Amino acid sequence: MEDTLIYNYSGTSSLLDKGNLEELFLAQYSEIQKNTHVPCFFWGNVGQPFILARCLISLSNIVRSSFSLSPFQMALLKDPIVTAGNERLRFEGFSHCAGVYARIDVMPDGLDGEFPENGTTNVDFNQPLINALGSIRPNEKIMLSVGEKEVGLYKNEERIIERKVPLPAKWIKGLGTVQVYLSESEKRYRFNKIQTQQLFRAMPKGVIKTDYYLTVRGNKPVFSPVKSSDSVCIGGLHRLRLLEPLLPYIDSMQVFSHVRMQSTTWQLYMGNIRLSFSLSRESWRGFSGEGALLESLLSDVSDEWIDALDKYAYVNQSVNPSRLALENKISLDKTENITAKLASMGLLGYDLDDREFFYRRLPFKLSRIIGLNPRLKNAEKLIEDGKVEILNNNKERTEARVEGSGVHHTVILEEERERCTCDWFTKYQGERGPCKHVLAVKKLITA
């Protein structure tokens, strides 16, 4: 199966009863971890275990949901990714169709424990664990462990079950794309608990196939099928129902919108826990196919940047490219949009509240992530086969002819505009990233 990655867990996640204390163990997997016997990423108390359990159940529901796939495709299991470091935990995942992205952030004040190792890994969310999370009661104490500890705390679990889990390649691609969209989003609204609950209670029923708009009338937020001057466009509004189980526990909600209305993000605040929930433009569009990161991948990121991040940046640390370059004596030449390039490679996440990127390396090989973009591969093939001819190239305008299947396409690049005569560009007008012909011309003139 070329469109899936198969990975194994050495054990299973579980919730163990230790007298009056519950111990939650999340089994880990990493394709890039050099030492398979590393200590766990986190071990300690959770300040709001009941709320965290509800958030993890909601995240599990999100990664098991789909809004465009067949029942067979929905049968595939996907497990969330957890990033631990800088005194905080972040859990993230996608729906099956990759059109819904969610991340749980447990802030430093919500944790009391140790971070023996920092890193990013897949975690095993099996059905017995989900059932156990549902049994956690308010004010009940639990210990959380991410990864398998060498001290053998869980030795009473005698069986070791090796589980093979398919992870669609588009799920990995989406994790890079959505970070770029988040960095291009702006805060539009903030609602208190009562306003948020009123808004969701008035949501239309059933599957909603047309666009709706979020706006505020007086002091009341509403969903309307009619666009207004300051409204936020939402495609596939019914997907927001995945948040309904968490509404009784929230303090407030903030809404962010992409500058070109390509996504919306809804952040729920629950004490020391924050859940971010992003929707693609329409329910049938996954973040993996948007092409937002393709131009970021056109120019290579040097190995020294990757090495510097691995050696000097710790997980969840905010990333300042200029400072990192100065501290590690890396040339700042060709570093324009370096954060977007690093994010597209799975090396950075984005925090909307802090308005900054943070380091988190996906637990997959960089070559795998970069190689998951067919449009980029096809662009490189066009150059390799000599099918790109530059007719005119200056600062204001580039014109090129690209050979296609029985036809020649004309590509025109101007300062803030690009055009191509191919069917892809005609259909999407650049909304889903550049076509392979535009990519090939851009790569050729910047080589």
The CATH architecture classification of the largest domain is Box
Ranges with pLDDT <50 over ≥5 residues?
149-165
Number of strands: 25
End-to-end Cα distance, whole Å, is 34 Å
Annotation field: number of helices: 12
Strand content: 25-35%
Which strand order do you get reading across the main beta sheet? 4-10-6-7-8-19-18-17-13
Rg from alpha-carbon coordinates: 23 Å
CATH first level of the largest domain: Alpha Beta
Kindly report the CATH topology of the largest domain: Proliferating Cell Nuclear Antigen
Account of the protein in words:
This protein is an alpha+beta fold. It has 2 domains: about 1-370, Proliferating Cell Nuclear Antigen (Box), CATH 3.70.10; about 375-445, no CATH class. It has 12 helices and 25 strands. The chain has helices spanning about 50-65, 70-75, 125-135, 170-185, 195-200, 305-310, 320-325, 340-345, 365-370, 375-385, 425-430, 435-445, and strands at about 5-10, 15-20, 20-25, 30, 40-45, 80-85, 90-95, 100-105, 110-115, 120-125, 140-145, 165-170, 185-190, 210-215, 220-225, 230-235, 250-260, 265-270, 275-280, 350, 355-360, 390-395, 395-405, 410-415, 415-420. The strands form 6 sheets. The protein has a 9-stranded antiparallel sheet with strand order 4-10-6-7-8-19-18-17-13, sandwiched between helices. Strand 22 (about 390-395) and strand 23 (about 395-405) form a beta hairpin. Helix 10 (about 375-385) packs across helix 12. The longest helix has 15 residues, at about 50-65. The protein is globular. Mean pLDDT is about 80; it is low at about 150-165.
